[in-house]
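Researcher: Re-running this chain for the archive, since the previous output was lost when a drive failed. Same request as before.
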Amino acid sequence: MISAIILVGGWATRANGYPKYLFTCENKTFLERQIEELQSCVDEILVVCRDKEQIAVFPDNNPVIYIHDIRKNQGPSGGIHSGAWHANGELFFATACDMPFLSSVVITHLIKLSEGFDAAVPIWEDGKYEPLCAVYRRDSVRRFYETHDERSLTALVKNLNTNYIPVQDLINLAPEKDIFLNVNDLNLLSKIREK
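Model: Regenerated structure tokens:
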């Protein structure tokens, strides 16, 4: 079984507090786009909220499981921690709600490349990671968080037996999609809508 987690618990400070999962592109919210793409390559989708109050604002009609952070105020690290504790899949794909152009082809490739590793994480030529477009082995992540109180996803990636995948290799698999684009603010949202 393969799981996916979508982190939606941020405060969207660069978007004036407007939830990024509600940003729209091509008449669908970012969250709807992500769920649609993930349904074709994973067995369950978990949406990780910051608390029960945030879960309450979501509609019941999405084919997902809503969970909330166990470790509060730890940013994306807290979301991955909670996802690892709730995921039924031995492997899980992790993403942020501000990445609207996921590719099932890329995700499936990352799942294959995680075989024999704790994680498959894209890496840029300058050495920066994409920990929120990556596949993790659930039990390895749980073991890390049982012994660490880290807020840094870099610490997680570095402490796992990680298969680093060149970003360009993944871009080549889905050249029509800007898979690593993070839409963090309203200006960038306007630009992608104009394309």
